Amino acid sequence: MPNNIIIPYSATAISVIARFIFMYLLYTKKSTNDLSLLFCIMNITSSTLWIQYSIEISDFPILIRGSSDLLLFSLSSLYIISNKLREHHPILPEHIIATYN
User: Fold this and answer.
1) pLDDT in tens, 24-75
2) What sections of 1-101 are H helices per DSSP?
3) Nearest alpha carbon to residue 88 among 43, 27, 34, 40
4) Which of the ends of the chain has fewer CB neighbours closer than 10 A, N or C?
5) Could you tell me the pTM of the whole model?
6) Class of the CATH-defined domain 3-100
7) 12 Cβ neighbours under 8 A, 6+ residues apart
8) How far apart are CA 60 and CA 65, in angstroms?
9) Residue ranges per domain, the chain?
10) What's CA 12's distance to the chain center, in Å?
11) Which residues contact 15 (CB under 8 A, 6 or more apart)?
């Protein structure tokens, strides 16, 4: 396999694996960090631009990377927002639970 195919697919694979590691750490730490959310939003924007660029130059490895990043960072953002909402608005507040005991 020539280098002009190995390098972009290797870079794509490493990038996608790194995103899964980020998502795993995000999930296990139950993050609500504003910087994590900002990081995700910036990467969603970047991924969207990479997708557009990859379409313009017909580069499939960049398209795969941009698309997978867009999906994974969107899921991560939704997870962070969900954790923030849960943190600020619990399903059953303690004073309601104490009333029924």
Assistant:
1) 877 887 766 777 788 888 889 888 988 998 999 998 988 998 999 899 889 9
2) 3-29, 34-57, 60-88, 94-100
3) 34
4) C
5) 0.66
6) mainly alpha
7) 61, 62, 64, 65, 68
8) 9
9) 3-100
10) 15
11) 65, 68, 69
